[in-house]
Amino acid sequence: MRRLRIAIAQIDATVGDFEGNYLKIANAREKAKDMQADLLVLPELAIPGYPPEDLLLKPRFIEKNLEYLDRFVKSTTDIAAIIGFVDAKDDLYNAAAVISDGKLAGVYHKIYLPNYGVFDENRYFRPGNECPIFVISGVNVGVNICEDIWYEAGPATAQAFSGAEVIVNISASPYHYGRGDTRQKMLGTRAVDNTTIIVYANMAGGQDELIFDGQSLIYDESGKLIARGKQFEEDMIAADLDIESVFRTRLHDPRWRKEQNISGNWSNGKVFVSPPSEKVKKPITPHFGEEKGFPGEIYEALVTGTRDYVNKNNFKKVVIGLSGGIDSSLVATIAVDALGKENTIGVFMPSRYTTQQSTADAQLLAKNLDIRLIEIPIEPIFQEYLDTLAPVFEGLKTDTTEENIQARIRGNLLMALSNKFGWLVLNTGNKSEMATGYTTLYGDMAGGFSVLKDVPKTLVYKLAEYRNSLAGCELIPSSVIHKVPSAELRYNQKDSDNLPPYEILDQILVAYVEEDKSMEQIIALGLPEDSVKRAIKLVDSSEYKRRQAPPGIKITPRAFGRDRRLPITNRFNELNH
After folding, report:
1. Which of 110, 317, 453, 554 is catalytic?
2. Is 394 labeled as catalytic in the residue annotation?
């Protein structure tokens, strides 16, 4: 019986950390050997990390990447391996190296280069034009990279109809909610359509705004899922692939007699890598990593993104401005889960407008999380500002200027603590606020990393309730969850004074920001016309603020920043066109 034992290592690579990435790669190789795997598969650009962006324009970066590939090739014996790297021939290529017996047996160049959303691969790479078949342990294996497998008549189909019994796709597929389900359905379909086993190796961990959710997958030729890696964690999964079953299934499929080769414009051929294994191996049982579902997987994505951003950028501790509100409470809770209570500091900065309830809530949250809480009243500083500006503001009414002064005082204090102690300030603003400009430049927008930047306000509540359900108690006090949202920058202030209710606003923002629907289309969804017009006006007028916001974790299909790029200076007005 023909079988191929395959191991997938979904590692958490860091861009430019060649030595750190190599140690993870080498460790995975030794684990795969212990499993008696015939083939080890590692993710897309596992050697340099993904996405390298303009580091690809630095010659030394490319050279280091090739040096570490050579080091891995020479040290890899008694097992074949497929790993992502940057190839440099006549141009740069997003590439997969096929390795065996201490030698580079072949290279595949990514054919479909994504250039949408967070992707910008046409800026750096040339597309490949070959779809070879690699004979690994006597099995015909097609190798392709990430985007290649998403095309119905793409490289995977060409390789399958050229004889590939197994398709290996190495990937660094960024997470957003719902992406995992879409990916699984697509891969299962590719397996059935091509009557081939699909092996999908994905990256895990956070890189700046992007999260890679791991969840590497193996499907048999009938579309049955036979192994799945953990979500958001490094993992090693292995399975014995039944190659004979692929052959038998194809005997019953007339397509394999009618369509001998579907190669499009790509040349193909066979590359011998390694002979069949003669070792007698005990069967292994593939494992299935848990799927966390909604909203658990989003919470885990936020924890992962926070942990990796802080640690990979060499910070030790974080500081959060606690207001007693839902946003800062959730950010503090995520920080504790990501970094530990000993590395999370809360700062409470009350003013004349801070309610007793907010004071109690901030103190109770800090107690529940067992974190250090620093209290710095801003009233004396605020009064000093008012006195200093009084001659200039004489005769003018109090307005948002005075409100923003308070926010900027708090931002200034947080940044002072950051400078003095080396703590990273975690911004606490959410996507609803960021979208509408309900934020203060150099005030509550201050910070080095924005945990909730892509999290709508209504989802903030769901995440808080989810975390409390895990704790089995009110870790985030119920009074925080149920109080009326307020910035508390003036007496009796409510968010609804300036914004449509969040339940309505967030629906408008999904339609306008994520789906690019027009005003008329959004109103046709049954949403109030005045709220739609108000929200659109706020979104359009706040681009200059968003451009100055700190980076934050992407969890929706379209986040501000890398995903959505609009000019600050522009005369197009959705309301008047």
Report:
1. 110
2. no
